[in-house]
Amino acid sequence: MTKTALLTGAAMAALLISCTALPADSNNETVKVENSVDASIANKPMLAEWSGSYDGVPPWGEVKASTFEANLIMGLEMAQAEYDAIAKNPEPATFENTILAMERAGEPLSRASSIFGVHASNLANDEIRGIQTRMSPKFSAFSDGITQNEKLFARVKAVYENMEAETLNPIQKRLVTERYLGFVRQGANLNDEDKAQLTAINSRLSSLTTQFGQNVQADEEKYTTVITDENDLAGLPDWLVTSMAAQGADNEWVVTNTRSSMDPFLTYSSNRQLREEVWNKYYNRGDNGDANDNNAIITEILTLRQQRAELLGYESHAHWALEDRMAKTPQNAIDLMETVWPAAVARANEEIADMQSVADTEGANITIKPWDYRYYAEKVRKDKYDLDFNLVKPYLQMEKLREGMFYAAGRLYDFEFEQVTDVPVYHPDVRVWKVMKDGDLQGLWYFDPYARTGKRSGAWMNALRTQHRMDGKDVKVIVTNNSNFVKGVEGEPTLISWDDANTMFHEFGHALHGLNSNVTYPGQSGTAVARDYVEFPSQLNEHWLETPEVLNTYAVHYETGEPIPQDLLDKMKNAETFNQGFSTVEYLASALVDMKLHMAEGEIDPDAFERETLAELGMPSAIVMRHRTPHFGHIFAGGYSAGYYSYLWSDTLTADSAEAFEEAGSFYDEAVAKSLYENIMSVGDTVDPADGFRAFRGRDVSIAPLMRKRGFPVPKDME
Known about the structure:
Elements: H1 12-19, H2 68-87, H3 95-104, H4 107-122, H5 126-147, H6 150-161, H7 170-185, H8 192-222, E1 225-227, H9 238-246, E2 253-255, H10 259-268, H11 272-283, H12 295-311, H13 317-322, H14 330-361, H15 370-385, H16 398-413, E3 415-420, E4 431-437, E5 440-450, E6 460-465, E7 477-485, H17 498-515, H18 531-541, H19 548-554, H20 566-574, H21 580-597, H22 606-617, H23 633-636, H24 646-664, H25 670-681, H26 689-697, H27 704-709
Parallel strand pairs: 5-7
Antiparallel strand pairs: 1-2, 3-4, 4-5, 6-7
C-alpha cells in the first residue's frame, strides 16, 4: 500500500516482484520489443482483459505457473512499446497525449503482475521463487528504461512547464507535478554515464531485495518447533494446543515460525527453555549464519542505497526517501520519534520492574529476558487488572469479527457486503464478497485468512485493480486482505487473539481506503498516497473494533453466543494502556534503527550496528526490536526503507482523528464520518495529505492525542 510515484499505468506490478521500491536490472539490459511479438493476448489469460461478472475478475482457474514467465515478459514488451510510442509522438506534448497516455499504458502488464504477485506472496514455491529471481531484473530494466528515456522525460517536462497554458485543474496539476518529480527523483536529469551507474545500482538492489525476502521466508518454513512430549504443553490454553496439533502429525504440536503462532506460545508457555527456543527461532530469522543469512545482503543493500542517493544529489538514502512524504526530512521524523521515546522507555522499565517482582515472588530466580516478557506481562495483567486474555479469546471468532467489520463499514460508508461464489479464487481458503453502495457495485473484497506453506508471514492488503473514471470508464476496485491465522479444527470456529483482531480491522482499513476511492485517474487512486499517510486510514479503522456496537453483537462466545460480559469489557478498558511501554519501544527501536541505518556512512555490519545503536538509545535489555535487522522485510524487501517511522507518523494523525469522533460523542457520528469520507477516504492523492487532514480536523495535527492514547504524560507545550 504505497504511492506509485511514476509508472501508474502498469501500477508497476503492484511494485511487483519482490515489492522493491526501485526496480533495476543486473545486466543493464533494456527490454526490447521484437517485431515478431504476437500482439494478440486473447489466448493469454494473465494479460487479457478480465472478463466475467463484476466488470471482470482475475481468471485464477485459467492461470498456469508454467506460463507466468512468458506472460510477464510479453507484458513488459507490450508496455515498453506503449511508452516508446508516447515518447516518439511527433505532436507537441499535452496532458492528454503524454500524462494520460502514461496513465493508460501497461494495463496487460498490470493484470499479469497482479496475478503473479498473489502467487509470489500467497502460494510461493521453488518454481515461483525462481521466476521472481529471474523477472526482477527485467522489471528493473523496464523501469529504468522509462525514467531514463530522454524523449519521454522531455515531454513530461514540457507538460509540467505548460500547465497554466493548458488550463489544467488542481487535480490534473498535482498529477503532472507528481509525474515530473518522479522522473527527476529517479535520475532523469543525470548524464549518460551516471544513468548507467544508476541502472547498475538499481539492478543489483532488485536482486538483493528479492533474495532477502526469500531468505526470511525460507527460515520461517525451516525453523519450526515440534513438541512431542505432552508435558511440554504446560500453561498453554486449550485453544492454542488444538491449533498447534492441527499443524503437526499425530502426537505432535507445532509452533510455526510466524508471529501469530510465536506470540501466544511465549505468552502462555510455562516452559522457559521452550520459550527461549521459540523466541530464538523467530527473532533469528535471516541471522543463522547459513545459506539464508541476510547480513551480507544488508551491508550491500545499504552501501548501494547510499551510493544511489549521492548520485542523485542527496545527503543520504533517508533524505531521498522522505522528500515526497509528509515528514519531508529525516530530522522531522526523528524529532517525532525522540519525543515519544523517553516516555516509552520509562514506561517499559516500569513494566519490567513489575514483571521482575512477580518472578521474584514466585521464586523463579531469573532476570527477565526477552523470551520472558510476554509470559510475565500476562501475569502482571492478571494481577493489576484481574484481566486474563484467555477469557477474552473464546469471544473472538474470526468470522463473527469479519461480520463486525462489515457492520462498521456499513454504518460509516453505507457499504453492503454479499458473499459471492461465482468468482474464481486461487486457493480453497479464499472467499469473495461484492461490495455495494446505494445499489451500485463498489468493488470486490477477497479474504485469505489462514497460514499455509508458501505464504509469507504477517498480514497485508493487495489492490488487484484500482478505482478510476478515466476515459469515461467506471473501473471498480478489487482488493484482498491476507492474514496468517491458524485454522481451527474441522467443525470448530477459528479463534484469534485480541491483537489479531486489531490486525484484521487494520488491514480492512486499507481495503476500505481502496473501496472508498472516488477519483478520475488511476495514479491518484485509493492507497496511492504518501508512505507516512497510507497507514492512517488503516490504523484509524482499528478503533471500530472497540465500539460497543461491534463488541456487543459480534464479539460473542463461540459456544454460548453470549457477548463479552460488561465486567470483562471494563477490565479491558482499564487495561487499554497496559504494556504500551513494550509495544511502543519494540516498534520505535525498529523505526529508529531503520532511519539511522539509512543515514549512516561507510560499510555497515548489521548486527554490530543494531547492537550499538540500541545501546546508545538506552534500549531495555528485556525487549528487542519488533523486526530485527536480518529479517526486517519492511525495509529490505519492501517499500518502507527509511520509512518505518510512518506507522508512528500515521498514528499521530489517527489518535487526533479518533478524538474528533469522541468529541462528537460517537464513532458512528454521521457528520464526522461524512467528513472522513470526503477529505480522507475518497480523495486518494488528489490533494496534499496535510491539506486533507486539515480539512477534516479543522487544524494541523497535534501530538497530544497520541501521548494520551498510549497513556504517556503529555508535555505542557503540547497541551
